Amino acid sequence: METVGIALLGVGTIGSAVLRMIREERERIAERTGLFLDVRWGLARHRERVVQAGLSERAATTSIEPILADPSVQVVVEVLGGEEPAAAYMKRALEAGKHVVTANKEALSKHFAELVAAAREHQRALLFEASVGAGIPLMVSLRQLLTTNRLHRIRGIVNGTTNFILTLMAEEGVPYQEALRQAQELGYAEPDPTADVEGYDAAYKLSILASLAAGRHIRPEVVERRGITTVTPDQILDARTRGGAMKLLAEAELADETWRLRVRPVFVPASDLLAHVRLNLNAIELTGDRVGTIVLYGPGAGPSPTASAVIADVLDAVRFGPALLPNLEPAT
To answer: pLDDT of 35-83, one tens digit each?
Structure first.
């Protein structure tokens, strides 16, 4: 039995869920994999938050330094969110010889090539299944597809918050602000919902997916982005009358060797599978030259699905190391 030392950067909703799931499942995981997961450190702005999450005072830190200096830490799990200090912490962890697992789409989409290069230089894993689609096995599917396919289209619903809001507006006639309030009460939307409703979150996720398909870093700034705040009740009603639905779609398409990335609310007819994706669920279409179009569907948000993906990545990081790193050139 091998013990895997883990440092958890962030003990908020997702970090606490990861810690809780490790405690509940570690015996079963050990039986199945021969790996015993042991969370050695928890990092937060205040040590009290780490203790409240269930770790000891000795395991609590407000600094990355003791984590980087601890040889018993094999995997750093980054669930801080936001660009910084998350991106800097991930790079330093890789340079210190730690595997890195992240659920952070913003930091990854903005620093993807840099982080992959650091992981490759130091022969460490960088895994990010939970960054797009939470519990949907999207990255593992992409890795498999890209071995034999050239992807030329990515299309889907990748933001559960906006899909929830649009579903309530369409099916129950709920006004936008009330639908947003309900999303916030259920924990689907942040107190400041800008990243979701203005399409930034979807743009970060699309950037990651398109970068993997292209084999080079496509930065989120190049995504043509429009959120759902411009969607009117008349548009919602018209879509429903026509048998379809308004959806915030993330689309990346390859034409003449150039990728075009767009996030925007559009009418989706009833004949399209994406029209029937409700509430906070996600669905992503991947189209390759050999396999055709496949659709991946499931919970795209939430603490439990995200924690499940994070822990699976921790196990893969230890078992496979840098073997799962994508080929990714810097942005041009």
So the answer is: 999 999 999 999 999 999 999 999 999 999 999 999 999 999 999 999 9
- 121 in a known ligand binding site: no
Residue type, 216: R
Helices 160-172, 233-241: crossing angle, 10 deg rounding: 70
CA distances from 83 to 153, 161, 205, 306 (A): 27, 20, 14, 19
DSSP bridge pairs for 102: 78
Reference 14, options 82, 78, 90; nearest CA is 78
Q: Known catalytic residue: 98? A: no
| Residue range 152-210, pLDDT digits in tens | 999 999 999 999 999 999 999 999 999 999 998 887 888 899 999 999 999 999 999 99
Task: Check the annotation: does 22 bind a ligand.
Answer: no
Residue 14 is assigned to a ligand binding site: yes
Sign of the C-alpha dihedral computed for residues 201, 126, 281 and 260 taken in this order:
positive
Q: How far, in Å, CA of 176 to CA of 193, rounded? A: 12
Ordered structural domains, the chain, with CATH = 2-134+304-324 (3.40.50.720), 139-299 (3.30.360.10)
Annotated ligand binding at 215? The verdict is: no
Catalytic residue among 91, 98, 205, 247: 205
* 3-state secondary structure at position 216: strand
Please give the Cα distance from 299 to 138 (Å, whole number).
11
